[in-house]
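Example (one chain per record):
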Amino acid sequence: MHNRNGRRVARRMYLDIETLPAYHWDEERRAAYAARKVPANYKKPEAIAKWMDSKGSKLWQETSLNPLHGRICCIAYALDDAEPILLWADTPEDERAALEHVAEVISGHGPRLVAHNGFRFDFPYLRARAMSLGMYGLAVRLKKGKPWASTLVDTYYSWTEGARTPGNMTDLCELLGIQDDDTISGADVYRLWATGDEADRALIGDHCVQDVVKLRAVFGKLLKGGYIEGEK
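Predicted structure:
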């Protein structure tokens, strides 16, 4: 597909993100966050202290799922059938640069954005991080529309058609005969990132890129099966 100037533009942008907990918090703020999560039936100070030591000390890590506190680790994307591109975003400067890059690509091509579980995670997470950086144009672009006219596609939602049907990426790949050689999951990202080892960092990046490769393959199969709204 080409624009008015004869420049080739992509129809679709396949996206995946990996995220990190609030690594910018100090120990005091992490403890304060955990303290708000202490079960209501814990009344004795010694019981609360024991809970904080065993469970509370790691609770802040759940902020990786919350864009109000967490941060993006990396973004991978692919335009149509092109090779995936990986953007690191694990510093404040890199996060801004990665989002600016994504915004520029979207502005230049105007593609439909495709993600797996995108409506519940990738799109709102990216949108919130864009808002935090004052990138309002990108935030508007990431707004969910009607399925038949939306510029956003969630392959999980397309597969389940809004029902409570299993549809995680691993199982879908097995069902649809798509190769999946991934050795880690999103749950491993912070552990690997925190080591500071380049080999571990490479594992995260490869996982993110492979998710995009699998996403594109899943989208293609679902498109053939009539699951994707707004596509011919």
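Caption: The domain at 12-25+69-224 is CATH 3.30.420.10 (Nucleotidyltransferase; domain 5).
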